[in-house]
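tokens incoming
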């Protein structure tokens, strides 16, 4: 699984086989078969332990991921959306202020131009 370390257990046998020469009348064969079955059971238990540990680990990772997803959906995204809405409203306000300022400058220029034209008309009339 990506980004998750899952433990894998392995069985091992320590020591030598002490029943190599055991049994003359089928006792040794039964011990050998019992030992083989016991080894298989141990291997299955080790595999089961590996799977159970992997499931527990994955459960913890899934819960953590769900908490992160919920935090992103319910906290971070709404916060970013509110910030974005605030920035947009501020930019709109700045745009309106700039538009109003430009209109005032144009009106002032028109008044100055009208005054100059009126002054020139007065001079020509005299």
């Amino acid at each position: 699984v990506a980004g998750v370390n899952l433990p894998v257990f392995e069985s091992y046998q320590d020591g030598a086989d002490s029943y190599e020469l055991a049994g003359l009348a089928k006792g040794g064969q039964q011990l050998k078969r019992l030992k083989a079955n016991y080894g298989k059971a141990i291997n299955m238990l080790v595999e089961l332990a590996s799977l159970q540990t992997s499931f527990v680990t994955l459960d913890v990772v899934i819960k953590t991921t769900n908490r992160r997803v919920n935090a992103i959906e319910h906290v971070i995204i709404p916060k970013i959306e509110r910030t974005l809405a605030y920035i947009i409203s501020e930019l709109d306000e700045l745009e309106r202020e700039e538009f109003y300022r430009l209109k005032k400058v144009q009106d002032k220029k028109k008044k100055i131009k009208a005054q100059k034209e009126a002054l020139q008309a007065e001079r020509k009339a005299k």
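note: The radius of gyration is 44 Å.
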